[in-house]
Amino acid sequence: MDVVSRLPSSAYYSTDRLEALYEYVEQKGEIYGAYQGDTLVAYTVIAFPGLSAGNLGREFGVPEVDLPKVASLEGSIVHESVRGQGLQRRFHAWREQRAREKDMLYLYATVHPDNVISRQNLESAGLTLQFSRTMYGGLPRHCYAKKLF
Predict the structure, then answer these.
(1) Please, which residues have CB within 8 angstroms of residue 29's CB and are 6 or more apart in sequence?
(2) Cα(87)–Cα(82) distance, integer angstroms
(3) Alpha-carbon Rg of the chain, whole angstroms?
(4) Which residues of the chain carry a pLDDT beneath 50?
(5) Which pLDDT value is given to residue 7?
(6) Taking CA 112 as the corner, what is the angle to CA 90 and CA 110, rounded to the nearest 5 degrees?
(7) Which sequence spans correspond to the domains of the chain?
(8) CATH topology classification for 2-147
(9) Could you give the CA distance from residue 83 to residue 42 in angstroms, rounded to a whole number?
């Protein structure tokens, strides 16, 4: 997580969410990595949280019966040496494809308001800003959504 320590602000990536990332990968999500040779230079996570308490669908008013059809973009980290090469955009496309393959209805994401690049990438992937609020232990977040079907 050395890259996280060099982000412009520690508020861009919620470190208390790291435990959640492990849970997503082990139980209810997928992680993808990009390598340069043998070196991991970027990774991204998509979650399929089901009825768990952390399902972002509740923040967006999704009915309880539809919560199993929610996917969330849980985070991407790209090493400085490969930024600007479109990895985040490719990650968005891969994760949306996986959500569609699993017949998810909704795709959600949160991002720090000052993280301009991530906001632009979400918007170029067709997600739209729905609202802003404090989340993850007091961090400001813009909340994005995309209906898949």
Answers:
(1) 45, 46, 47, 48, 49, 74
(2) 8
(3) 14
(4) 1, 4-5, 7
(5) 47
(6) 60
(7) 2-147
(8) Aminopeptidase (3.40.630)
(9) 9
